[in-house]
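Marked as duplicate of an earlier ticket. Keeping the data here for the record.
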Amino acid sequence: MNLIRLLLFFSILTLLFLSCEKESFTNNPNEVLQFSADTLTIDSVFTSVGSTFKRLKIYNRHSESVLISDIRFANEAQTSFKINVDGISGKNFSNIAIPAQDSLYVFIEVTVDPTNINNPFIFQEPVIFTTNGVKQFVVLRAWAQNAYFHFGEILLSNTIWATDKPHVVVDRTDSANNFFLV
């Protein structure tokens, strides 16, 4: 019985050592990433209200794993965009691995600060992906608009509103904040 246990122990130990294979990453600068889009546009964002999430997919079409050494915004300190890479939110990331023949989702949102502009305006920011010393860019673009916000106000039929920018009525009577564009 002890001999069987000893053989079983060494068999399991051998399997553990054989299964511990270190992942190898390509360092070939010609093996770059592919993206689902070169420009990702988020449309009709009202200032101070966050957008819905947009999705960017990054592909590793190679036979070895790829290590993205750096992901960052070109203007990191002043960007209005936020990204989520592999479940983590931030503005810069390092050492993100994509296994061979696999992909990775990046989720993007934007919250635009109000300005003095009444017409729609564009926010644009490149995201830089560095892999094997090669920099690749995906441009994030958002169409934004300042608006008048009405939170739980009682609206009377004889009220006259300015027409220089949209009015957003926020209904806070239930647990979800419902937005209505007027």
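See parent ticket for discussion. The longest helix spans residues 2-19.
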